[in-house]
Amino acid sequence: MAMKIERDLQRFRDIVRGRVRENLRRYVTHGEMIGRKGRDLVSIPVPQLDIPHFRYGNKGNQGVGQGDGDVGQPIAPGDGDGSGAGPAGDQPGAHVLEVDITLDELADMLGDELELPRIEPKGEANLTEEKARYKSIRRVGPESLRHFKRTYVEALRRQITEGTYTPDRPRVVPIKEDRRYRSWETEKEPQASAVIVYMMDVSGSMTDEQKQIVRTEAFWIDTWLRKQYDNIERRYIIHDAAAKEVDEETFYHTRESGGTRISSAYEVARDLVQREFPTEIWNVYFFQFSDGDNWGEDNRSALKILKESLLPVANLFCYGQVESPYGSGEFIRSLEPIAEEHDHVILSVIEDRDAIYDSIKAFLGKGK
Description:
- This protein is an alpha/beta fold.
- It folds into 3 domains: 1-51 and 94-115, no CATH class; 128-188, no CATH class; 193-364, von Willebrand factor, type A domain (Rossmann fold), CATH 3.40.50.410.
- The chain has 10 helices and 10 strands.
- The strands form 3 sheets. Strands 7-6-5-8-9-10 form a 6-stranded mixed sheet. The chain has a two-stranded antiparallel ribbon with strand order 1-2. The chain has a two-stranded antiparallel sheet with strand order 3-4.
- α3 (103-114) packs across α5 (208-228), α5 runs parallel beside α10 (356-364) and α7 packs parallel to α8.
- The radius of gyration is 31 Å and the shape is elongated.
């Protein structure tokens, strides 16, 4: 009975996850689970999932299970004189179920849906971590590591050899010489690390709607890259005419009214990587979001820093231009010649929330 319940539960979980997969594009586009994220789980509302349940009749009435019943007699009460608050409706109700999905499962769904290639990190040979693995069996060791199956086999073999084992009364009693213990060996295991550097224009032309688009896209970028790396860091840089490193909360909720100098963000990003993330060990990802506005005189300085300092150390440099009614949208045109020369420079125009899906595929689809 317990095994049948487990099978039914697993089947139900598979149905739920199938429903999540079917609606993944909607979740990606609208970011419904960002506010529901825990440490390792994401709680996702899955609508219109019918869950089987019993319907009971009125207590004390005759019917099936309560006395004599006729073939075809309904178990639930029929349309009698009810005392409900209003007339019956003719539309089905919406069943909303909160489902916990691990971030790893979510990353796998994203990878399958967008056909994302696995990333082959650089620097694996340079950074290793020692791990103990149980790979052998010894005759001595602590009782907490006793290998019960191997101990039983040794005792059985000894008793058969001695002629003390009786098949009619199978009783195996290990002695001290029969005991076997698991033993470990220390291995050096490659450990790949990555840092994601997010940069965003927070000048007055970037509205709250544009920032929500950035936040939604960054959530999915994080989810995928965390699946690919053992250790990952995230850093946030905001800028208008000047730039600074901030925490995540400030990144998504700051709005300034000054001008725009993209070179200031590139300078902070360059200094951050040089100071804290040596590129022979760290895989570096830059994601920049802007509405395309930049002070005209600054383009040359920004592109110089990008080509000389950021691109040589980057696995990826991704620029997402978020459409704004106030931004000029010109900066992406300055990046197009660079993107043609460097295959790890990826540009994306994010017109609205519906464009997030294709933008993520563009950014992560090369497997770098």
